[in-house]
Amino acid sequence: MNPIVQSFLHTDTSTFSYVVYDHDGGAAAIIDPVLDYDAATARFSTCSADAILAFVKEHQLTVQWILETHAHADHLTAAHVLREQTGAKVAIGQGITGVQERFGKLFNLEPEFLPDGSQFDHLFTDGETFSIGELSGYAIGTPGHTDDSLTYVIGNAAFVGDTVFSPASGTARADFPGGDARKLYQSIHKLFDLPAETRLYHCHDYPPTGQELQISSSVAEQRKGNIHVGGYTSEEDYVAMRTARDKVLPAPRYMLPSLQVNIRAGEMPPADANGIRYLRFPLNVLGTAK
């Protein structure tokens, strides 16, 4: 059985979120939801999450899963908000513990924060199966962009996170802590081994000037035309290209707030004694001086 897929575009971060379901009145999963965040005021809102909830209500869906493809560095997740509203389980790949350990140290979150994945309801392993009502799915470990990156295959649809974008946009960066261009190449070829007609649903797209955002592409289109890894691109050529390209990419705008929230499954840090919650920003640690 193939899923029904409804996409939601968060224009500020060029992020696609998805509701995946079996039929009206049935079961659903929400994939990569976004929490709206204003960097100037450090204020968040739930407009984007509310739009997803309105769709769920309209179609009388029971949300069973909130699935994260990885701990995103370019937007804050609305997983915690949606879990509170739906009672669904929040899941991510088991590699999240390494991401939590790495960034927990960067933000000096211990001892109140434990890098054990317990903030999530379920940690998927490579090849693990799951169901969404009448739908059957399984997880594919696709590290490289991050070491917790995961693809969810549900029927003829695969939700690939940042592993690949549209063929015209290429592939994700691999220079975050824990990223690895060689692993990313190998993960992409796992996706290329899926049936040619499988639809790969992107988490982002950054098209060339004049081209529209592309929500999904087929495996066949990616194999043939991905500008970074399509055709007969070798692993060595890809690693060289990806490494050189990543050296000149700017850091994502919302990287610092996103990572310390997303490794908590979207829950904000605990309040200080004055009742206010705070995010942390390490100075002169990341990037280079300009």
Automatic annotation (TrEMBL):
The keyword Amino-acid biosynthesis does not apply. It comes from the Bacteria. Keywords: Metal-binding. SUPFAM superfamilies: Metallo-hydrolase/oxidoreductase. Coiled coil: none annotated. Residues 14-204 form the Metallo-beta-lactamase domain. Transmembrane segments: none annotated. Pfam families: Lactamase_B. This is MBL fold metallo-hydrolase. It comes from Aquilutibacter rugosus.
